[in-house]
Design brief:
This protein has 2 helices and 13 strands, in the order βββββββββββββαα. It is mainly beta and 229 residues long. The strands form 2 sheets. It has a 7-stranded antiparallel beta sheet, with no helix packed on it. Strands 1, 3, 4, 6, 9 and 13 form a 6-stranded antiparallel beta sheet that branches.
Length: 229
């Protein structure tokens, strides 16, 4: 059971599109486009949407939104990132990427940013619900390819968070839309962590919202009978 949540976007605070900046493959001559839109009424959810075009760059392409400016997030005491998918979300079957940076790229003479290492966690939002992304699923990448020799992510100094739709080298393209109510950092009970550590068959994280592994289901019932939830 999750016992501590630190909302980064949404949740107990209003979504604000002004806190996000666009970074699409148009900076490299591509044709993809994205935006993050917020309801003008209640501002309780944000939608990351756009169109991924892979024809212009010969199978490559990306469309992304990232936090504006420089963050100063100390998430070292948390277990990972939690994305809450809104009830109005319509599954599109696409793989989304949540990105983190602990160093911001330096600008080039033309004002564009240089490429730099990102830490990426891939997920598919099949249904409304929570998607947990523990730190172990974040992989260091450089221009979309894994970089196994990168230094560990400095979780105590997160400077940028982003959402990306990329082609995975021409494996997906077209329209996309992801409705969220919150992006947060989370902690779990030590009992749940110990349970996960002692059950090797459930070591692989379930990244699809609305789905629960057998061990997660057992843990929920156990907690219910113990009066914890």
């Amino acid at each position: 059971m999750i016992v501590d949540i630190h909302n980064l976007y949404g949740g107990d605070q209003a979504w604000d599109s002004a806190l996000w900046a666009t970074s699409d493959d148009r900076v490299r001559g591509g044709s993809s486009q994205s935006c993050l839109i917020v309801s003008d009424t209640d501002k309780t959810h944000g939608k990351f949407k756009g169109h991924l075009d892979t024809s212009t760059l010969g199978g490559a392409g990306f469309a992304s939104q990232h936090s504006r400016g420089e963050l100063a997030l100390d998430l070292s005491s948390y277990e990972g990132i939690l994305i809450t998918i809104a009830r109005q979300h319509k599954a599109d079957g696409k793989r989304y990427v949540l990105t983190l940076k602990d160093e911001l790229p330096s600008p080039r003479k033309d004002g564009r940013e240089t490429s730099s290492i990102s830490w990426e966690a891939v997920f598919v939002a099949e249904a409304p619900g929570e998607i947990k992304l523990p730190w172990k699923v974040f992989k260091a990448t450089y221009r979309g390819r894994e970089k196994p020799d990168a230094k560990p992510l400095d979780r105590g100094n997160i400077k940028r968070l982003g959402l990306m739709m990329r082609s995975f080298f021409d494996e997906q393209n077209g329209d996309f839309a992801l409705d969220m109510t919150a992006i947060a950092a989370y902690k779990e009970t030590s009992a749940q962590r110990n349970n996960a550590d002692t059950n090797a068959e459930d070591d692989d994280v379930n990244l699809k919202s609305g789905r629960f592994t057998g061990q997660e289901r057992k843990a929920q019932w156990k907690s219910l009978f113990c009066g914890l939830i």
